[in-house]
Amino acid sequence: MVNNPSIYEINTRVWLKRFGQGKQKLTLADVPNSYWDDFSKKGFDYIWLMGVWKLCDSVIEKYCFEEGLVKSYKRALKDWEPKDVVGSPFAIAEYKINPLLGLKRSLLELKSQLNKKGMKLILDFVPNHFSAESPLIKTQPEIFLSVDKEQYENDPYTFYQPFSGEQKFFAHGRDPFFPAWQDTVQVNIFDQHARDFLTKTLLELTKVCDGVRCDMSMLVYNNVFMNTWSGVLEKNGYEKPNTEFWTDAISKVKNKRSDFIFIAETYWNLEWDLQQLGFDYTYDKNLTDRLKSATTNEIREHLLAEHDYQKKSLRFIENHDEERAMSVLGKEKSKAAAVIISTVQGMRFYYDGQFEGKKIKLPVQLGREQNEPTVEGIPEFYNKLLSITSREIFKNGKWTLLEPICSWETNTTFKNILAWEWTWHNEKIIVVINYSAVISTCRIKLDLRGFQEEFIIADLLNDQTYARSAEEAYHAGLYIELKPYQSHIFSF
Fold first, then answer.
1. Which of 56, 51, 86, 93 is nearest to 201 (CA)?
2. SS3 of 462, please?
3. Strand, helix or coil for residue 470
């Protein structure tokens, strides 16, 4: 397994519309095998197809036209129509491929194509909830969080009655800091039937994909679940289990298929906890937020975390939940941020449209996107960056944070610069980023013992080469001057 892999997220239902030459219905079978060659050349290890599972169309009209959602549709798609609303991909009816996207065979063929090109397929797993009208409510009602009529009548927003003729009431899925998601039904992770069902589902998924991105995975953490649903759980006599669901489930899946990976979407500083439960990678939302608004020193301090933690962190500047980096950061700062997340330890994450500089955040309920012009220079920038970071040194080398130092007595701009080193056998690479809006300078001391007095250093990102003094770089430090949000990736 690659130590620092790259993953690419695709909004499947929207993305498919780019193929098929005017065909009304497009499936995974319409994507040519050759399409994936470019991702392989760019060094991608994983492709995440977001939103392939079967949904309940019946919940769309009931729950997908709330005022806040409609406002988001208008912002993202000026000429949107009700038919463009296709439902949340995270309100899953059951883990069968959405028939609008193809057959199970199509998914297996796609996985085979990716595997032959050295890439693996990641799909969604949502442990916290299913669609509010999932057929499982009838066939497997014991896995969901049920309530009595009194609880339902006291809070009909959080709780609901799925079948008008039956006195059965369930909780909608929720995050404790927000109102319930009306289009979902809550799984009762404290019930053994639910744990067994979800584990069985994961074991089945090992046959159709190579890993899962686990939506809001901290919500089924025992303490979080207890705090969210304590009143309901106590009234129904449920006690906190002795073990965590993730520990048990991941262990069983890894026993069947050791290379199957688990990626946790998680927040609230629970990343380390979930890594200890067996997750291969956890979202590093803290870095994303720091890249938007924190000081360079705060970013540097974040990168001082233990190597074991960082190697299991997933680094990103945008995804389907985040505002687009081009919109939030602007062109030059987003490029600098991309260099950062692409050259630190961990899993490097990119979202469809990022390489073109898209600015519109598309609500996941929409099945059509606004046409956007490609931002000049952005595709070329990413092509260059990914061609560099696909090298073995960035995949399996040793990463070390460097300390930029003052270049002259009154200079303070060295504090704006981030720098680190990669080593792999006899190869060295130094990454230097001015993450500020002013010209900044610094020196960086390099261990150049064994190098000739004059050595050549090549800037891979900017196609420049320089002759420098090894003695000066070793004793005083390599002199660096960078314009706002500019970067060097030096090889020597």
1. 93
2. coil
3. helix
> pLDDT at position 450, please?
78
The Cβ of residue 481 has, within 10 Å, a number of other Cβ atoms equal to 13
Sign of CA dihedral 235, 240, 241, 245: positive
In this model, does residue 345 exceed pLDDT 70?
yes
Q: pLDDT tens, 455-482? A: 899 999 999 999 999 889 888 999 999 9
Say if domain 398-491 classifies as CATH 2.60.200.30.
no
User: Given the DSSP bridges, would you call strands 46-50 and 120-125 parallel, antiparallel or unpaired?
Assistant: parallel
The first and second tokens of residue 377, run together, are 């220079």
The Cα–Cα gap between 292 and 287 comes to: 9
Residue whose token pair is 């799925």: 162
Residue 266: which of 258, 275, 257 has the closest Cα?
275
Sign of CA dihedral 52, 49, 90, 68: negative
How far, in Å, CA of 178 to CA of 116, rounded?
43
Residue 198 vs residues 43, 50, 195, 223, 245: alpha-carbon distances, Å:
33, 19, 5, 19, 9
Hey, how many other C-beta atoms are within 10 angstroms of the C-beta on 32? Answer: 10
- The H or E element spanning position 263 is strand 261-264
Sheet holding 169-171, edge to edge: 146-147, 169-171, 159-160
CB distance 55 to 128 below 8 Å: no
What distance in Å separates the CA atoms of residue 317 and residue 355, rounded to the nearest whole number? 12
Mean pLDDT rounded to a whole number for the chain? 96
Q: If you write DSSP's letter for every residue of 22-69 in order, what string do you get?
A: T-SS--GGGS-GGGGHHHHHTT--EEEEES-EEE-THHHHHHS--HHH
Nearest alpha carbon to residue 45 among 54, 53, 36? 36
Q: Which residue has the tokens 């050791």?
A: 258
pLDDT tens for each residue of 219-272: 999 999 999 999 999 998 999 999 999 999 999 999 999 999 999 999 999 999
Q: Taking residues 357-364, what's their average pLDDT?
A: 98
**CATH of range 6-395; options 3.20.20.80, 2.40.50.140, 3.40.1190.20, 3.40.120.10:** 3.20.20.80
Cβ-based burial of 244 (10 A; exposed 0-12, middle 13-18, buried ≥19) = buried
The label of the residue with tokens 């039937």 reads 193
Residue in 189, 243, 197, 208 with CA at minimum distance from that of residue 103 = 208
286: CB partners within 8 A, 6+ apart: 269, 302
The whole model's pTM is what?
0.96
Q: Which part of the chain has CATH 3.20.20.80?
A: 6-395
Give residues with Cβ within 8 angstroms of 484, minimum separation 6: 332, 434, 436, 437, 438, 439
